[in-house]
Amino acid sequence: MRALTLVATCAPLTCALLMMSGCGASGDSGGGAEHLPVSGSGPFTPLEPDPSLDQISPPFVLADSTADLDDPWVVDYGDQMALWVTARRANVTDIEHADSFALEQGFLPLAQAILPDRAWEAGAVTGASLVAGDPVVPGGVWVLFYSGGGAIGWATAPAITLGHNWTKAPGPAIVADGAEEGTELSSPAVVRLDDRVRVYYLAEGAIWAAEAPWSDVVAGNATTWTRLDGDPSTAERDPMLRAPAWALSIGRFTARADKTAAGRVRHDLYFTAVTAPTSAQASISTCGFASSFTGDRFEVAPVPILPLRNAVHAPAETPYRDGALLLYIERAGTRDAVAAAHSP
Amino acid sequence: MKRATSPAAVVAFVAMALAAADVAHANPIDAFGYGSRAAAMGGAATAASEDSSANYYNPAGLVRGHDLRIDIGYRYAQPLLRMNGRDVGVDASRGFLVGIVAPGRIGPFRFAFGASLWLPDQRLTRVRSLPFDQPRFVLFDNRPQRLYLAANLAIQIVPGLYVGGGLTFMSKTAGQLFLKGSVAVSDPDASSLVSKIDVDLVAVRYPQAGILWEATRWLSIGVTYRHSFVLNLDQQFRIDGNIGNPGLTPIVENGYFAAHSISIDLFQPWQLTGGAALRLKRELLLTFDVTFARWSEFPVPAANLTLGLDIGVYNDKVMLPPPRSYAPSRFHDIVIPRAGVEWRAWQRPKIAIDLRAGYSYEPTPVPDQIGESNFADSDKHTFSVGAGFELARITAILPRPLAIDVHFAGTYLPPRANRKIDALDPVGDFVADGVILQLGLMIRSRF
Q1: 3-state class of A53 per DSSP?
Q2: Which residue range(s) make up the domain with B183?
């Protein structure tokens, strides 16, 4: 009788609980590995060929049959991206621009952004780098630095143009100091640090930097630049970055200075490096990474951030979706094109 | 005579349990509690449990009541845990709770046997070992995903003084894969290998014990100890044989390659809980618990991989990496205060309603993540509410009151920033925060 009582009591209760459990039975949901943080320091893996993608040919995401592309600089806005590149065509070397609604859809055709039309530019402009404005920074003015004639110039675009119509400043912003920087600057990389603008640039095989007030830059009036010391602990002025031990030399690069999730600024440099030859690997052009929380005394990653398969150069990084995306230049047939790699 | 020997028997029982136990185990009950009544009271139930939840909170409480009890429940906990503002998708923990308390008496000697089962309805257990540097919510990633079974025995030493103890059972995994034969170098398909797979789910148990003293009519005091537990994941792979091409003299005779990985799948610290229950009025019960949890013994949850290779004259052509070393986890011990209240809000001959509330504060044992590891966690503030409906004489076959308890609990993890020393860190600075929502129902029947 007691057993019957137990069964009579427990059976309907158990049925009710089973019904409850069925309501929530949606299976496994990922196991805590979704949207994990990624710093962007690599290593990066080139996009794999994917037959389902008919608008890009991974790892290449942008190519032009009439131009060698170089020096990509990318601005992300959600899934969308805006890309500026140097385009070397038969008759002109200029800076061009292309938009993308999503990486898998590739980029729209290139359009001219900055043409070499000033005497000091010596007939070619290269190496665009930007501080993004509206809509990335609501209401913000767009600022673009570029290289020409061994100096660095800049242009601005009002917020309403979304970075498509540029007005050049009257003259170059930074010229070589004739001392440690030698006589020629190239490959500017700009970052905004609150009320200042910092421009990194390449000179004498190293990366240097100078700063100016943001208000002066936006007003087209940035004539006073403060040269920065890459290692304030020594008396002489040092570059921000020299070639690391694993490289023979460093070349074109980009920079980022974003706040981390913990609220402090991290300064990143993505640079071209030609590796030193080893018994297993001949010298090859690849990409490296350096970073700093203070904006000087950069630490350099001990190995390249891309696999040493093909010669690549001119890396530019952006956060994208759940990870980081690295755009870089690689040979595609007879032309240099923009390829992409992801991390993780 | 029986009364004189019974404490010794319990001590012997607990000692046997300690001796038999492997090192520690982690379980979902530690994370979310057991039963709706205790969960609604902030988990402060060490001195206030006498139903099947006593199997977890204090085994001594099992012998407090005189009725046969069967409890059945369901609990759903949904973590919404974020890193850098994005939900990382930590799995829900949900499943059935089934418990029994069977009291008995031999002359004046009262005893009770109890057992509790947590039966997840997604998976019985999850075994996994993640890369050391993979970000994870270390206390919720794997810990709630397993079956839990506890069995206890409690006795009354003298009226008002009870002791109890028992074992909690879980399982660990040990797996081995052996291949033996010939490996063809130029044509791998021509290889002839015989495989042998040996995987065991080894029973592991850890002890718990408690004491409960009804000091006065309005004050009860209890102490509970739960032992620690480390769950290893042991995997071996070995291939033995000749290397060469079929029909020819082997290039390497009797070579082998072996890999042995031992990693930490789960860890539970030993815990000592002291609690008090104050019945200030007949309708009002206040409960308090304080738990010390020995998290400083937390081992590095990374795989220790040992490789072995013998390919004869080619040994010097292959460099096997040495076993990797990891920085210690440096978790720290914590003290967890809990408080609960139960108020008999409504009392009629056939129905009574209890309202409950509770709060607990669990400081994080995880140090700031400044190096290679990325163990996300934060302090935990848990607020809980619940209600109990006690129905009397509802059917002829259920003469004793039937209690239906429901609870809701919300755990808040305030944002915690982790700043890395190394600017090159691939994960970088991260902020961990989130909430965990929990709903439960428990039906407690007495016979």
Answers
A1: coil
A2: 2-446
How do B375-376 and B136-137 pair as beta strands?
A: parallel
Residue B11 one-letter amino acid: V
CATH number at residue A206: 2.115.10.20
**Eight-state DSSP code of residue A329:** E
Of A263, A288, A261, A259, whose CA–CA distance to A273 is shortest? A288
Residues A262, B88: C-beta atoms closer than 8 Å: no
- pLDDT, tens only, B39-89: 999 999 999 998 999 999 999 999 998 999 999 999 999 999 999 999 999
| Residue A11 lies inside a defined structural domain of this protein | no
Residue among A130, A127, A139, A135 nearest A201 (CA): A127
Substitution target in A10, A19, A20 with the highest count of B β-carbons within 10 Å is: A20
Residue A196 domain boundaries: 38-343
Residue whose structure tokens are 């937390």? B298
pLDDT at B142: 67
Provide the pLDDT confidence category of residue B338 given band limits of 50, 70 and 90: very high
**Does residue A30 belong to any structural domain of this protein?**
no
- In chain B, how many domains are there? 1
The sign of the CA dihedral B156, B158, B160, B161 is: negative
Does a structural domain hold residue A23? no
Where are the extended beta strands (E) located within B269-379? 271-281, 284-293, 304-310, 334-347, 351-362, 375-376
Task: For B8, list phi and psi in degrees, rounded to 5.
Answer: -65, -40
Q: What is the CATH number of the domain that holds B333?
A: 2.40.160.60
Task: State the complex-level ipTM.
Answer: 0.86
CB contact under 8 Å between A262 and B418, yes or no, is yes
pLDDT above 80: residue B199: no
For chain A, how many structural domains are there in total?
1
Q: Which residue of B has its CA nearest to A321?
A: B86
